[in-house]
Amino acid sequence: MPLLIRAIFFIFFVEVLKIKQDFLVNEQIKFAEVQVINENGEKIGKMSTSKAIDLAYERGYDLVLVSPNENNPVCKILDYSKYKFEMIKKAKEAKKNQKIIEIKEIRLSPNIDKHDLEVKAKNANKFLTTGNKVKVSMRFRGRELNFINQGKEIMKNFCDLLIDSQIDKEPKLEGKNLTMFLSPKQK
After folding, report:
1. Kindly report the CA angle at 81 between 77 and 87, in degrees rounded to 5?
2. Spatial separation of the C-alpha atoms in residues 119 and 144, rounded to whole Å
């Protein structure tokens, strides 16, 4: 059981280290005078840094530099450990709600048959309905390079077979490959 507790502590400790400490706290603040906001969000006014630190210690909080402007630095009186915990919690929540979009590739050939094109379009529809982007590529070999217009026509037919898709990038020849990017239609 102690091993499990150690693992949980380690994971939490690593998460704390990932959050970069952007704010200066208490004695780390090097400004002579700062604008002070109390723990309720009310403006106290401008005072010397040492006085502000003493005021924060009297109330049982920390003095945190929120806005490090040279002309008018702003400090807030708050519980720094609680504030840091909330920042970690927000970062985890944002990471959890993040949606990762993948790019799936479908390869066509200049002499593809109608049924094969339909099967590839069916697979592309699956990718698009799950929210992924699709890269459609066609490689030209040898004498096939003379029929690039035919390849563009095949790509246009491929797009017509798809449901609820939009073209992000029109078919473009890059070297010997003709590529096009598709994404799900925005609602």
Report:
1. 95
2. 23
Burial (CB < 10 A; 0-12, 13-18, 19+), residue 143, is exposed
Residue 77 amino acid letter: I
Percent of residues, the chain, with pLDDT higher than 90: 5
Mean pLDDT of 169-179: 88
Question: Cα Rg for the chain, rounded, in angstroms?
Answer: 29
* Residue 3 confidence (pLDDT): 53
On the 0-12 / 13-18 / 19+ scale of CB atoms within 10 A, 62 is buried
Query: Looking at residue 56, what is its pLDDT?
Result: 82
Q: Which amino acid is at 5?
A: I
Distances from the Cα of 137 to the Cα of 80, 140, 145, 173, 181, angstroms: 53, 10, 14, 10, 9
**Dihedrals φ, ψ of 155, to 5°?**
-65, -40
Query: 105: which strand partners?
Result: 135
Domains of the chain listed by start with CATH number: 2-96 (3.10.20.80), 103-184 (3.30.110.10)
Which residue bears the tokens 């609820």? Answer: 164
